[in-house]
Amino acid sequence: MIINFHIRNFFSIKEEQVLNFEADLKDEKYNDYFVIKAGKYNLLKLIALYGPNGSGKTTILRAFDTLQTTVINTRDANQILNYVPFEFDPKLKKQNTSFKLDFLIKEKNEYVKYRYEIEYNSKEIVFEKLSYFPSTKAAVIYERKLNADHVRGFDFIVQKNMKLKKSEKDVIEANTLHNSTILSSFNKANPIFPNAKKVFEWFKNYMGHFTETAAFGTKPLDYFGFDYSKSLSYFNDADRKKILIQFLENADMNISDIVIPEYGKSVSEFKDFWKTMAESLTKSCVTEEIPKNEDLYLSNKAADTGKINSKILHNYKSGDDNKAAFLPIIFESAGTIRSIGFAHKLAQSMIQPSLLLIDEIENSLHLEMVKYSILTYLSNSADSQLIFTTHNLLLMDWDVMRNDVIWFTEKKEDGATDLYALTDFNGVNRKKLLKQYMAGNLGAFPDIYQYKFDLEPVKEKTES
Fold first, then answer.
1. Which fold has domain 1-208+354-464?
2. What is the pTM of this model?
């Protein structure tokens, strides 16, 4: 679980900004739902980012995602890193991006604190350091520094108390390029280095669940915001899918099944598959017969390749009869698609501890659906954490969130992002929070002041 995250010189972030998951000990509201008690730490399950468009909310999410991919991905020697420095400062455009992450890993029912630090540019990793905290003081596991005289281009320094054999150290060095991290070597080799390997696994499994708004609706099989091949094991597992379907049923969506056929099935095979699904339905639910035009259930692209799209089973009433019919995903509304993708992500985080990053959580969703999703996540997740960006001001007004989960991003005059928490303000009246924000007392509010435009020159050109 994440304690805090430091970001510097990345996209709209200029000077170092810190996002902190440590709960406000003075605020005991809904502790059982919002706070994870992890050893001596009290960590928030949820952070909500508010701020005007273009103020850097999505940049915070991208930073988490970029750190994860930078850490675990192996690269070829010529591949550039995801390096986008702050563009409005000529000096910073030539400086490194840096991240520092403090986090906890559960080991034998105890939580151990780790710290990972990295600096890099488009060409190379400049600095990398992994530490852990056996006590209040940090103990370095390894450090990596540039060294042009070294055959690998860097020094890989491992502390003696880590007891790493020279042969194992050589394996790690041999699998680490100038543009890849020490931890990424575990993607290529399997050296015996428990302290570093468990951190690699944590980055791989806990981090990296980022869902941008743009991920939805790009093409049919990407609608749910997940990798198609990985989704099959989830949606074809009866127990896991039961949770997802229950989520949708509780949300009053009248969806009772979601089917994701494997690639490569022919239309004739799909007929048999359809009939099998029909026979498996409850007696109280009548399924429509297969349409004569099977191509209706194929997207143009999928029809050319024989690949079949996902389908959703909708329940409805016809007179006094309960009926159900499958619809292909390409016929579904954006709200239905987003709800399923959202349910899938939340269900995963409730089952497997992970960091879930969602951009514009309210996109295509009814506000009650957003509220329901947040409360469901808080009620069922254990060691997972959720960060979402939002423009849903009613969440401030409703009794849904604590003060310490609300954070703001504000664009300063130089174009840089300023990240700060609601708890930075004294005397905030929870019952009047929305009014205080709308009045501009908390900052991070768009300064819109002009509504009238001079349209005459354009009108004259159009008329002529």
1. Rossmann fold (3.40.50)
2. 0.85
